[in-house]
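Hi R.,

Here's the input for the zinc ion complex you asked about:
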Amino acid sequence: MQLALELKDGYRETPEETFSRVYRQTRVKARRRPSEVESVRVRWRAYANSISTLRIRDGVMQVGLSEALREAPEGVLEALAEILIGKVLRVRAAAEYEERYRGWVNREETRARLEALRRRNGHKRTSGTQGRRFDLRELFEAMNQRYFGGTMEQVHLAWSRGEARTHLGHWDPAHRTIVLSRFLDRPETPRLAVEYVMFHEMLHVAHPVEFENGRRRVHHRRFKEAEKQFEGLKEARGELRRLCASGFSF
Ligand SMILES: [Zn+2]
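And here is the predicted structure with zinc ion in place:
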């Protein structure tokens, strides 16, 4: 029972289980029977508002929740699931859920938490990590949560000055800075591809250069092993090959 281990105190379900259950219950009420959902992925985002996102594609439900919701009571998450899934399936959520959710959003405690996130994000923007499409700090935080359990310490983040198409990113240990090529910061770049480059550079932070038989190894065995945990590695590399037809490195 792996799932049970991840349950927070007093929670009967994981967020994934809540969204999955509410989907099953709402699906039977929808006029045109929507397809089944095979898996649910919940991601915590540094959203500075109470906005949450839900998308269903190829049997996978992707849910993006504001970090402000982390401490919310289970009933609030359930109410949000009812509202978001109701919107997607065009089944109006019961007023009770709307009230429960709105009640929580308007609580002083919640507002304070959102305000804190906003201040943190405001600080980010002035540091120039916000690009035309992607925010490096947001990408860093998302990868930090997903793959490093939120434990990676902060580093400086910057977009490159030029738009190098072949050198997509690098980690500068002297200045403790991850630099991503501004070339990636465009509407047609799939988020997965940029997430992968960010994750790769973060692995350089976590796995410093090693020396093997007197030779300097940057992408050593432990690095490559760790890189395999990236979900959608093949797809991400494929996207980068498509974007950078002449090859790439980072
Ligand atoms: Zn590298």
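One thing worth noting: The pocket of zinc ion is lined by residues 200, 204, 218-219, 250 (CB under 6 Å).

Cheers,
M.
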